[in-house]
Design a protein that fits this description.
Blueprint (H helix, E strand, L loop, with lengths): L1 H9 L12 H20 L6 H11 L10 H22 L13 H10 L2 H24 L9 H67 L4 H29 L28 E8 L6 H21 L5 E8 L3 E8 L15 H11 L3 E6 L5 E8 L5
Parallel strand pairs: 1-2
Antiparallel strand pairs: 2-3, 3-5, 4-5
Length: about 400
């Protein structure tokens, strides 16, 4: 198993988290062009001035491809540098190039950020070639003195540090994605449990009525008995299959026999006047006859929104919860009066908003959360009364 996991990581495909050649990359290249030209024109200690400028300008396009083709970018950039280094060694000139070409270090970051494990190993070997050539050149020009390899070692350590940063960012991004996927999965399981409990109740009623029908049937007893027997059989089979399915989803947990909370229990989330922040709940409109899944979801979303406000809304004194039943949907709004900018879900460590949005999406609705213009945050969820076709 460990060998298979290592093989999978080694051959992992390149999947950048942003499209290649985005406007930021073009802006970076555009900003570096005048830097290269100015250094090439005014720097006095340059060897092979025209070639140095040409090499630097030729390296710039690799920045545009570093996200989608990290290994190819590294090979092209550091391969070109290695060729010029070899030529300088053969000719005996101490060619260093432009200082502006330090931007190629971004290619090393991109290699470990978006490349596969195989790409990282191959790319690191390519990057080491210019480093070795610089060390050899330092040996050739030492003139019997102490070889100045300290700068070469520092450069190599800097390259490894950039590679480590790229790998750590990649790992953190994967961990975040796994966390979001796990939250969505748990939310789907929770919804499946609630749907199971609701449907199981109705199916159980069908089975009981079918059993009673067999007893009280008086007209055409044979046909009635046959029909009721089919109803009982199918209802019992559906109930058994649903219990088996949700039993697998529970992952060994015992069934929760506690009655489901719904819109009627949202008022229980209100707090007494002396508590801070004070939670106020207002129910309005037609809230009768809601689908059980929507009924339970409204309570869950209100509960999670209040919890977020209490935890993250700095200096909040009041949290207002409004649930309104409309002809085709149910609208829930949770607003707090905390300090603006005190809570940003993009920097939060939890995934509460992710789970809430996933639950609303599964039910065919929407959920929006964000800061108000004046103070506090508002969470708005809209769930359809009717099931999706």
């Amino acid at each position: 198993m460990l060998r298979d996991a290592a093989r999978s990581l080694w051959a992992e495909p390149r999947v950048p988290d942003a499209p290649g050649r985005v406007w930021r990359d073009w802006a970076l290249v555009s900003a570096l062009v005048p830097v290269v030209v100015l250094e090439g024109a005014f720097r006095e200690d340059l060897v092979w001035r025209a070639l140095s400028m040409a090499v630097a300008l030729a390296l710039l396009p690799t920045l545009l491809w570093r996200r989608t083709h990290p290994l190819q970018s590294v090979v092209a950039a550091f391969g070109l540098v290695a060729v010029v280094d070899v030529a300088s060694l053969i000719l005996g000139d101490d060619w260093r190039g432009l200082d502006a070409t330090v931007f190629v270090i971004l290619l090393v970051y991109a290699l470990f950020r978006w490349g596969s494990g195989r790409d990282a190993v191959i790319g690191l070997a390519i990057v080491s070639i210019p480093v070795l050539l610089i060390a050899f050149d330092a040996q050739m020009h030492s003139d019997g003195d102490e070889v100045p390899l300290s700068e070469v070692a520092q450069g190599a350590l800097f390259v490894l540090l950039v590679a480590a940063v790229g790998a750590s960012v990649r790992y953190a991004d994967k961990a975040r994605r796994r966390g979001m996927d796990q939250v969505k999965l748990l939310e789907r399981e929770q919804l499946a449990r609630e749907l199971h409990d609701t449907v199981a109740h109705h199916v159980s009623a069908i089975a009981i009525r079918a059993q009673a029908g067999r007893v009280v049937a008086s007209t055409d007893p044979a046909a009635a008995v046959d029909a009721l027997a089919v109803i009982e059989q199918e209802a019992s089979r559906t109930l058994a299959e649903m219990r088996t399915m949700v039993g697998a989803l529970r992952q060994g947990e015992e069934p929760d026999l506690t009655p489901q909370h719904g819109v009627a229990q949202v008022e229980d989330l209100a707090t007494s006047p002396g508590e801070r922040p004070r939670v106020e709940v207002e129910l309005s409109g037609d809230l009768d006859g809601l689908r059980p899944s929507v009924d339970a979801a409204i309570f869950r979303l209100a509960q999670e929104s209040i919890t977020n406000a209490v935890r993250h809304a700095r200096h909040a004194t009041r949290v207002q919860v409004a649930v309104r039943g409309e002809p085709d949907c149910v609208r829930m709004t949770v607003h707090d009066d905390g300090d603006p900018g005190a809570f940003d879900p993009r920097t939060a460590t939890g995934f509460g908003l992710v789970g809430m949005a996933e639950r609303a999406k599964l039910l065919g609705g929407t959920l929006e959360a964000g800061p108000n213009r004046s103070r506090g945050w508002t969470v708005t969820a809209v769930l359809p009364r009717a099931a999706r076709p």
